[in-house]
Amino acid sequence: LKQRQLSPDTSEILVLPNGQILAHNLTPNMAAVLASLNPSDETMAKRAGHDSPRKEGQVHQPYRSINNSSAKLGNSNCSEEPLFTSGASESKPLTIDQ
Amino acid sequence: MLAYAALANCQLCARHCGVNRLAGERGLCHAGPQPRVFSAQVEVSDELELIPVFAIAFSGCDLRCDFCITGKQSWNPTEGDVHSLQALAQRARSALAQGARSIMILGGEPTVHLPTALELVSCLPDDAQLIWKTNAHASAEARTILEGIFDVWVADYKFGNDACAERLAKVRNYTPIVQENLLWAAGQTHLIVRHLLMPGHVDCCWARVAEWLAQELPGVEVNLRFGFWPGWRSARHSELSFPMTEDERDRARTVARRNNLHLVD
Questions:
Q1: What are phi and psi of A16, to 5 degrees?
Q2: Coil, strand, or helix at residue B246?
Q3: Which of A21, B67, B102, B105 would bridge B129 by S-S if both were Cys, CB 3.0 to 4.6 A apart?
């Protein structure tokens, strides 16, 4: 079964007639573009600059380490086998109207 | 592994269809035993406290939201491509090394691919902040498997009543199920609740969601999403054929203030 490279990073934008721009799957590069288009958008500036530090005193403690949940996760060997191991590799149109 | 065995009588989502996915049977989600990935990239559109996020998106979902922004991939689990866990984990490690703060597993709906999601987690660095982005329509059985795995749950509360849920997402008994999931998650982990504002649904959906959150989960972080996008099959519903109006956004903000919600960007 052939594995594929992931497609290049992508964002989608929708420009409304009033000039408003909606964005989906916003990548850092697209955030930088949108921030440059509207420098007064403080939230977009933060997204473009990643200048959103952790909350004061926030220290990450992974739950799965704390709870020793390795039994649940299993002893994975991080297989190089494809995730999808049966059926065709091409996507298929489905009748999925429900 | 325990989680994979669950696919022989799938009870992962609250539909409880019970199909044997290992034997080729399929439920409404159409998901088989293993997922495909339709996106894996660094993104900055999630909550500011989480970004940059390395987001890994599995195709397939147990809901049928006509307004789904990723409807093509969410409604069809054969969308996307095949990738090894090792390759995905390596991409995640690279993203973390380059400044990503979190790794998010999402869909579609990742609950329907819970076994593989957990196997992927086992390949990720122990100190990585892991986020489970979900529609909060998981079964109790799935929650048992998920206990103690993810640092943050970003969970949707989409509809304020069952009638809107059934009409727009073809799901019954939505309200008690999502509320049960949110209460469970709040007791387990760091919970962020998202609500996508939809045109024509400020009063019937957002106001009711806000009131419940204020009463049952006071202080929980709420991300009110204003970027409704009239895509996929939104045009099936007249009110969803257009973006939000500014008046509706203002009314939504008023609802949030009235309920003293802890809004986050």
A1: -85, 160
A2: helix
A3: B102
Alpha carbon distance B110, B146 (integer Å):
11
- Tens digit of each residue's pLDDT (9 = 90 or more) over B234-258: 999 999 999 999 999 999 999 999 9
Q: Do B119 and A74 touch (CB under 8 A)?
A: yes
B244 exposure class (CB count in 10 Å sphere: 0-12, 13-18, 19+): buried
Residue A40 touches chain B, beta carbons under 8 Å: no
CB contact under 8 A, B145 and A72: yes
pLDDT at residue B3 in the model: 75
Q: Decide: helix, strand or coil at residue B223.
A: strand
B187 CB-near residues (< 8 Å, 6+ apart): none
Size of interface A-B (CB pairs under 8 A): 181
> What is the pTM assigned to this prediction?
0.90
Q: Quick check: B176 pLDDT over 50? A: yes
| B167 burial level (CB within 10 Å; 0-12, 13-18, 19+) | middle
Closest CA to B86 of B138, B123, B39, B141: B123
Q: Which residues pair with B130 in a beta bridge?
A: B103
Give the C-alpha separation, B248 to A88, whole Å. Answer: 46
Kindly state whether A59 is in contact with chain B, defined as any CB-CB distance less than 8 angstroms. Answer: no
- Chain B: give the shortest CA distance to residue A84, in Å: 5
Cα dihedral value A50, A55, A57, A60, nearest 10: -70
List the structure tokens of B94.
Answer: 């690279």
| Strand intervals (E) in chain B | 37-43, 53-58, 102-106, 129-134, 152-156, 190-196, 221-225, 262-263
CB of B36 closer than 8 Å to CB of A12: no
